[in-house]
Amino acid sequence: MIKKMFALSTVLSGILLISGCSQKKEASDINMTSQTRDVFAMDTFMNMKAYGQNADIALSEAEKRILQLEEELSVTNETSDIWKIDHSDGKLVEVSDDTAIIINKAIEMGDRTGGALDITLYPVLKEWGFTTGDHKIPGEQTLKRLLENVDYSKVNIDGDTVSLPEDVEIDLGALAKGYTGDEIMKSMAGNGISSAIVSLGGNVQALGTKPDGSNWKVAVRDPFAPDTDMCIIEIADKAVITSGNYERYFTADDGSVYWHILDPADGYPADNGLVSVTVIGDCGLDCDALSTALFVAGYDGARKLLKSDPSFDLILVSDDHRIYYTEGIADCFTNISSMEAEVISLD
Ligand code: ADP
Ligand code: MG
């Protein structure tokens, strides 16, 4: 329920806080009408807004694509690719191109983040009850035993054929919504839409600019007060994807809070100094993979990755209430919180 509430408020942030600046467009573009569509899929409230005459058809096509991806990627649906992989007992499984693309990306990002992203954590996530909502703190011995089978390099993929050793199971929850956002954008563009914005839980993705040529304004939640906004970022044609410790969590009897992003190093909720990671870039799939991975990797890990690959921007919030953002978004980032914000130095 908590997740659903936050997801819905992200929708409002993503869609309502839209106004803008720059670039003139024709009057006919400016007067374009918009249509919206709500979809509940992938355990998330999704809201889409598209402008133009074809908006209704485009939204229906995008909705179909979301439902198709949910069918393929769900870890609990017995006909999904992921279910088949997880119940294959070591045999080869033929998967869709979508599933293969995401698995390949997960392996690549696992490599690039020193294993911070690991899709084989699924049995550990199940033990914590994050998959069912029946939360519990696993015992040390149980975690140790389960971690023996956590290693994304054991995932074999060749074209559209996947195999896993027995006892290894995967889940693509860390990347699926980012890929879905990319596919929605492709579907919209294919249906003649040049201006659209979608919010899939904490993920906002925009196609083009607003019809008047101005940038979309997207709010990022304050992780310490998730019903308020922390900053506004202006974007066009980009994904803004956040992973935070406030998105899905439980509080134990002793008051300790445990969240759904786990550190593959020890199987516990990742606690490496960051409470929220927002990744801004061209590709939703990459941004989603990175938001989860960098939440695990922490500030130093994020900075290290940025140095080797400056193709994305970041907004990090540390557990001591500071905001760090990349130089690349300095002109389109507005801090509306009481926290101090500073640029991440790469020197
Ligand atoms: P959300 O899906 O809540 O927006 P994320 O994109 O960060 O947030 O994905 C979190 C999900 O990824 C978890 O619910 C879990 O299924 C999975 N997960 C958790 N920790 C990891 C990890 N270190 N590597 C890969 N997947 C993870
Ligand atoms: Mg993610």
From TrEMBL:
Cofactor note: Magnesium. Can also use manganese.
Iron as UniProt keyword: no
Protein keywords: Cell inner membrane, Cell membrane, Coiled coil, FAD, Flavoprotein, Lipoprotein, Magnesium, Membrane, Metal-binding, Transferase
E.C. number(s) listed in UniProt: 2.7.1.180
Ranges in a coiled coil: 52-79
Subcellular location: Cell inner membrane
PROSITE patterns: PROKAR_LIPOPROTEIN
Principal location: membrane
Catalytic activity: L-threonyl-[protein] + FAD = FMN-L-threonyl-[protein] + AMP + H(+)
Record's protein name: FAD:protein FMN transferase
